[in-house]
Design a protein that fits this description.
One of its GO terms (cellular component) is plasma membrane protein complex. Helices cover 56% and strands 18% of the residues. By secondary structure, the protein is α+β, with helices and mostly antiparallel strands. The longest helix is centred in the N-terminal third of the chain and has 45 residues.
Length: 419
């Protein structure tokens, strides 16, 4: 005979019910609902955690792949920026450094005007700090330095707002304080669109690139210059930047790191992941504890069977394990099937959402509102193991109360009620 006996009987109870009895059919229906709820809860939590992992990855690898981990500035026009770049790049915790000249400007094409952040770059060093080159044509940087017709590289969102394409012309306007009575003056320069990058991030809506000398001229030669830095330890960027500032001999250096520009986004992603994970975990818990109602009805339906087993010598422990086995089977199947569906969902959710956007002609995520304009997903197997294990464990805990009730059934009273 199959051993152990409690597991054998519990699996029989879970897999088959007596036909022709309304209570048996109801028990089977409730048991099926419990399993379906657990499957959906586990699958949903795996997909949600994968999406949160995807947003975290996009922040680290895509957004902060384009933007530096930190930037050190100084308003002194006499700073030797190439020498300072080499000095900072020699630090063992700095992976790369590049000079930059930043200025806030307005871009205009015909009647359309939009604000943007202009970065004047050195094409030879920017590729070491930023992966922006991966979104551009190989010749785009060379066109920035065209003496006859200097170029500008725009984000896709800026180009869409202005209604321009590659090869067309725009004007960049930088407001400035005039020296005569505080009146406002403005510097204006025309540029040809050398290329348009689409990173799928919020940077598409705000970033434009110029040659270093062009940005310096646009800014009037004052302020905005700095050194962009990339570190090996992104999460320690603020501490490393402060140490570097303390080691610089000149005064008036100041800096900012990614936590001041994108730190709120990073914290929001982590908080959303925790809150959504907690909510979905509660859904799994509700589905798991539906096993309680299933087993309570089974115990009521099987009173006479329990009594017979007791009269045949089954111990309290064996009766307890019989119903624990039944609930454990429901939890195991629900957790494993839900885990498999969750893995498949995590792998296809990005393409599925993209397909729905194409089918209905809408865009669920836009980079001017969200950090990226698509739904990212990154499956991590430790998360799968955690969710599947939690679902099974909650189901197992849910079996304890009805199993204890079954083990306390008195044979004489149960058989008397059957008469």
């Amino acid at each position: 005979m199959f051993r152990p006996l409690p597991a054998f009987i519990g699996l029989r109870y879970a897999g088959a019910q007596r036909r022709g009895e309304d209570s048996a059919g109801l028990v089977s229906f409730i048991s099926g609902l419990s399993m379906v709820g657990l499957i959906l809860g586990v699958a949903l939590m795996i997909v949600v955690m994968s999406v949160m992992n995807g947003f975290d990855r996009e922040l680290r690898e895509r957004i902060l792949g384009i933007m530096p981990h930190a930037t050190i500035y100084n308003a002194d026009p006499d700073i030797d920026w190439p020498a300072l770049r080499d000095q900072l790049a020699a630090d063992p915790e700095v992976l790369a450094a590049a000079e930059v000249w930043q200025v806030n400007a307005l871009a205009r094409s015909g009647p359309e005007v939009t604000p943007l952040l202009v970065q004047g770059i050195n094409p030879e060093t920017i590729v070491e700090v930023s992966n922006i080159g991966g979104f551009l044509d190989p010749e785009a940087f060379a066109e920035l330095t065209d003496a006859a017709e200097p170029g500008v590289i725009l984000g896709q969102g800026i180009a869409d707002k202005l209604g321009v394409q590659k090869g067309e012309h725009i004007s960049l306007i930088v407001p400035d304080s005039g020296a005569d009575g505080g009146r406002r003056a403005a510097r204006l320069a025309g540029f040809r669109v050398a290329d348009i990058f689409h990173s799928g991030t919020a940077l598409d809506q705000s970033l434009a690139l110029l040659d270093w000398t062009q940005a310096q001229s646009l800014a009037g030669g004052t302020g905005g210059a700095g050194i962009q830095l990339r570190f090996g330890k992104m999460l320690e960027a603020n501490w490393i930047m402060r140490r570097l500032l303390g080691e610089l001999p000149a005064q008036n250096f100041y800096g900012s790191d990614w936590s001041s520009t994108h730190g709120n986004l990073y914290q929001a992603i982590q908080m959303s992941r925790n809150l959504v994970g907690l909510l979905v975990l509660l859904i799994i818990a509700i589905a798991a504890f539906n096993v309680v109602s299933t087993l309570v009805m089974v115990v009521i339906d099987k009173h006479s069977d329990i009594a017979i087993l007791r009269t045949m010598g089954a111990s309290t422990r064996e009766i307890l394990l019989t119903f624990v086995s039944q609930g454990a089977l429901v939890g195991l199947v629900g957790a494993l099937v839900g885990g498999a569906l969750g893995v498949v969902g995590s792998l296809v959710v990005t393409d599925l959402v993209k397909g729905l956007e194409s089918l209905f002609g809408i865009q669920f995520l836009k980079s001017d509102v969200y950090p990226v304009d698509y739904l990212p997903s990154q499956l991590q197997w430790p998360d799968v193991a955690l969710v599947v294990g939690a679902g099974f464990l909650l189901s197992l805990l849910a079996t304890l109360y009805p199993a204890l009730q079954a083990s306390r059934v008195q044979p004489a009273a149960a058989l008397r009620n059957e008469q």
